[in-house]
Specification:
single chain, 274 residues, alpha+beta, Deoxyribonuclease I, Chain A, six-stranded mixed beta sheet
């Protein structure tokens, strides 16, 4: 193949996005509108709330995307939409064979000079934080994610852990951090587990490119949160050093929150020189 074939397979710049759509059935028109308008090369979706066979593949494939899902009925569920077909897909976060919740999918994509690994993850909410099951499950899931990340880093390949982390990393990532002190998204143990990921060498893409505050990715449907800009930043692109080296810019596409029947999350996007 000549240069044209190479260009088609290896986009000179890749736009990789994470977007918790809060239910594919309710959000399909908004998702299609966003894909047509913003055309990410890889879109990591969370909370598709659909079994694999119920996901509207045809409508999305018609836009030129490959579709890979890891779903379950009514809850959770993640997906990878990509303009280039993944070489490999892995479903489920290793470390607990009894965990039946669909929260993690990894795709391996060929790029010039090697591969990039992109994961779509939906980290457990963990509330109520005094629940004897829900919060320990969140911390255990974060420990499994840390172990997975450590194993993948040994490959020395670009790795992007993209998703709804249900973690408010710092006080300035909330309109009013005092409202969240007893919440599982902001408890010291939650933030410490997130920092352990950073201490492995992972970089928070948005904070690496933007020190503006406040920056939010989620506004609740309740109490006029969007109108009051009472938001939090919980959707993150965490980058291995090899991916961070290729990061050029980021964006939080908050205009999507003002669309009709929106998700309560908005897309978070990274532009990479892959």
């Amino acid at each position: 193949m000549g240069d044209a074939g190479t260009a088609a397979r290896y986009p000179p710049a890749m736009k990789i996005a994470t977007f918790n759509i809060n239910g594919i059935k309710a959000r399909l028109p908004r998702l299609i509108e966003w894909l047509e308008q913003k055309a990410p090369d890889v879109a990591c979706l969370q909370e598709i709330k659909s079994v694999d066979e119920g996901f509207p593949r045809g409508e999305i494939e018609a836009l030129g995307y490959h579709v890979e899902t890891h779903g379950q009925k009514g809850f959770n569920g993640v997906a990878l939409l990509s303009k280039i077909k993944p070489d490999e897909v892995n479903r489920g976060l290793p470390g607990d064979d009894t965990d039946e919740q669909a929260r993690f999918i990894e795709g391996v994509f060929s790029v010039e000079g090697g591969v990039v690994r992109v994961c779509s993850l939906y980290l457990p909410n963990g509330n109520p934080s005094d629940d004897p099951v829900k919060y320990p499950y969140k911390l255990a899931w974060m420990a499994r994610l840390e172990a997975f990340a450590r194993d993948r880093m040994a490959l020395e390949e670009p790795l992007i852990l993209a998703g709804d982390y249900n973690v408010i990393p710092e006080p300035h990532d909330a309109k009013d951090a005092s409202q969240w002190v007893t919440d599982a998204l902001f408890l010291p143990q939650t933030r410490a587990a997130f920092r352990r990921l950073e201490n492995l060498g992972f970089v928070d893409a948005v904070r690496a490119t933007n020190d503006e505050t406040p920056l939010f990715s989620f506004w609740d449907y309740q109490a006029g949160a969007w109108q009051k800009n009472n938001g939090i930043r919980i959707d993150h692109l965490m980058l291995s050093p090899e991916a961070s080296d290729r990061l050029r810019s980021t964006a939080i596409e908050k205009h999507v929150r003002a669309w009709e029947k929106p998700s309560d999350h908005v897309p978070v996007v990274g532009h990479f020189a892959f």
